[in-house]
Amino acid sequence: MKLRIHPAWLVAVAAFVALIGAAGFRATPSVLIQPLNEEFGWSLGTISAAVSVNLLLYGLTAPFAAALMDKFGIRRVAMAALLLVSAGSGLTLWMDQSWQLMLCWGVLVGLGTGSLALGFVATITGRWFVRHRGLVTGVLTAGGATGNLIFLPVLARLTESSGWRAASLTVAVAALLVVPLIWWRLRDHPADLGVTAYGSTVAEEMPAKPAGGAARNALRALRDAARTRAFWLLAGGFAICGATTNGLVGTHFIPAAHDHGMAQTTAAGLLALVGIFDIAGTIASGWLTDRVDSRILLGGYYALRGLSLLVLPSILAATAHPGMLVFILFYGLDWVATVPPTVTLCREYFGAAGPIVFGWVFASHQFGAAVAATSAGLVRDQLGSYTWAWYGAGALAILASILSLMLFAGKRLKPVAPGIGLAVPVSR
């Protein structure tokens, strides 16, 4: 008897490969900063500005990319995104002006990787999975951490041995190599193959393409969602999520540990361990999202993260002692465990527009990260240590826990607008 694999799993594999690549491509500029400074004499501030543009576009592109996927299809948008990444990386081989770096790594790679961010994950899982939707969301989200672990060490070694151009060329070629896989295996909707979503017993017709431009649809989804209490609670919590992960720990953990006498290589190794545990934690969170109310999960994740950050100042030291390793284990498991339940809640509250709305919620995540990265640096400059930055982040994470639990007040829902789905509590 021949075992037939449901096409949804093949779509998920193709998406996972694309997500691994996008994460690695987006993080590549961090290994190029010093070589570009040495060759061209550009200041670290100038080079970092290109990275900042990349990060900003990575967040802001997500809702518009989700709207483009509704309009033109997942496969076309994903292929175009990879071609943008390849072009952005490849064109750097001929650059000799700092504005060209801004255009290539900042704009082109930022737009490309932003189109393959968490809004892409929400679109894939929303269309192709009913059963195990949370688990698949967790696995695909973990692709981001996997991409960093795969690409960054390889590109750092390649840059050291062969120069930054070899690293840029490698990224350009790798992005191109993923395009045929996307064309071959990624499909826009189960109806394209005459099947139902995995776990669904109801045959679905091909959804009608939304009227109007993609940008207008993305902004309309934001306008309608912003009228609801649920959106602001989700966006507020996810902004704090970004502030307490990428913005604070991802940016400032190494210099903070160095302030306490820890070698930078040791601190970097501990941060890499966070990425390893992040994979396990995100997949486990996806599994739990299929079984436990997402509001409870978010409330628990944020509360535990807040408590861990409040403890961190007392355990930072010159060595990686057992207490620090326990923090790394615990914090790593909780790093992006918030993503699967947040995606699920966006779908529950906003129906078919859930992926686009999640794109806007994800943009708030990046905004929170940017604010925290700057604020923590100012705290260190003014007070001479990061202590109050850690305490402030811990308090914010506990606030995010409260915001998440407040979603229970709006659990009974009714439709509010065509295409938006569920958002407003039913009056008793």
Which labels suit this protein?
428 residues; mainly alpha; Growth Hormone, Chain: A; 2 domains; 2 strands; 2% strand; globular; disordered C terminus
Total number of distinct structural domains:
2
Order of helices and strands: HHHHHHHHHHHHHHHHHEE
Shape: globular
Poorly predicted sequence stretches spanning 5 or more consecutive residues: 411-428
Order of strands in the sheet with most strands: 1-2
CATH architecture classification of the largest domain: Up-down Bundle
Folded structure, characterized:
The chain is mainly alpha-helical. Helix content is 76%, strand content 2%. The chain has a two-stranded antiparallel ribbon with strand order 1-2. Helix 4 (74-91) runs antiparallel to helix 5 and helix 10 (229-247) runs antiparallel to helix 15 (339-350). The radius of gyration is 21 Å and the shape is globular. Residues 411-428 have low confidence and may be disordered.
